[in-house]
Amino acid sequence: MVQEQTSERGGVGSSSSERSMTNRRGEEAQERQQLSARLSQIRYKILVLSGKGGVGKSTVAVNLALALGRAGHRVGLLDVDIHGPSIPKLLGLEGKPVGMEEEAIAPVSFGEHLKVMSIGFLLRQRDDALIWRGPMKMGVIKQFLKDVAWGQLDYLVIDLPPGTGDEPLSVCQLIEDADGAVIVTTPQELAVIDVRKCISFCRQLNLRVLGVIENMSGFVCPHCGEATEIFKRGGGERMARELAVPFLGCIPIDPQITAACDEGKPFVDYFAGSESAGAFERALGPILRLEERDLSAQPQTTSITEVSKSKEHKTMRIAIPTAGGKLTAHFGHCEQFALIEVDTEKKEILQKEVLDSPPHQPGLLPSWLAERGANVIIAGGMGQRAQNLFAEKGIEVIVGAPSLDAETIVENYLNETLQAGENICDH
Questions:
Q1: How far apart are CA 388 and CA 223, in angstroms?
Q2: How far from chain centre, in Å, is Cα 407?
Q3: I need a labelling partner for 343 at 20 to 30 A (CA). Which of 24, 120, 298, 309 fits?
Q4: Exposed, middle or buried by CB within 10 Å (0-12, 13-18, 19+), for 169?
């Protein structure tokens, strides 16, 4: 009799446990569907990361989001720094309440093109501390993505806390189709050491690194114009080169940025004509090229004598294989690549970076250059198989270029005066 009761109780307990597990699985499946439905309305998801605190990551996230909005895009800005939310202060939105919209959380609007969500909007007092462990943080991050009425967005910019802990990992697990990460560092070695780990984190999670921004890179005196390297310069750029990721540019220390942050004024709006605001907007290149990549489904391989289809875009990035500073005929075995960003309307060069070629490996260069935002490659010659691989990556190939320095080739290309030669490699 005792054995029968034990068996029956075991059966009841087992059945109850199975029902509970089934219910949990059903709830998780429903949450995944809700999350997928919400994220499907957002075209591009961009993460802003840093392995080190105090490098100006939130300032970069805010001004990148605003610059995207100034370009006419519908943008969401999500502050996932649970313990140190900065976004409400940076935008002058402290104390703004969130509302409800059809049983969803309504984000706070900023201007015509930007919607904002932060845990800072939900705190009763700005000095309140959230003493939460991982599961609670994971829950609120999921809620921000699943239950916030973002609506149709072109871009969602996500400001993450420093490091590679719970919050960045949770976001990467929840947004499996994230389009890439912008990494922020300052020039000094102490910051760069930690930021290198952040790039390793992205690679382990198969998250594309859109590029590195070197913030607080030198100080330009507002009175005399003399530049002073307070934190040195070039640490972030060297790191990007060593780790073979794109470098997006330097943003100097600017007292106007500090004043704008303290006053809750968007820097790129209030000081749009400054060099620092220009640096923010130039850093948008790889992010805007996400859209260009989707628009150019079947690019052409062409000769110099034909009109380039890529000039439809206002900005683009041209890759040139070089040796000794000049275009080299040996495309697959060149020493370096000059990556030159240009404004096709003004026909001028915006910025240039030179990257050492990756170790030679068949089929590597198309992916390697696509990750660095190349739209066009100008070469002396290239085999047909390589041209086909570049075409699959959405990159136009132009062959027959002479052995000149990279800037001259680009200037002639923009002015349509580049002289055509033969494709010296056609195997």
A1: 54
A2: 27
A3: 298
A4: middle
Residue 27: inside a domain, yes or no?
no
Over the stretch 321-340, which tens digit does the pLDDT of each residue have? Answer: 998 889 987 777 788 999 99
Question: 3-class DSSP state for residue 315?
Answer: strand
**Could you list the residue range(s) of the whole structural domain that residue 92 is in?**
37-292
The string of pLDDT tens digits covering residues 264-309 is 677 666 666 677 777 777 777 777 777 665 644 334 434 433 434 3
Backbone angles phi, psi at 396, to 5 degrees: -80, 140
Treating both helix axes as pointing N-terminal to C-terminal, what angle do 2-39 and 134-146 enclose, rounded to 10 degrees?
A: 50
Q: Enter the tokens of residue 107.
A: 């984000």
Cα–Cα distance for residue pair 108/314, rounded to 1 Å: 32
Rounded CA gap, 351 and 316, in Å?
11
In angstroms, rounded to a whole number, what is the distance separating the alpha carbons of residues 212 and 237?
Answer: 8
Asked whether residue 327 falls in the same domain as residue 264, the answer is no
Asked if residue 25 belongs to a domain, the reply is no
**57 belongs to a structural domain:** yes
∠107-110-116 over CA atoms, to 5°? 35
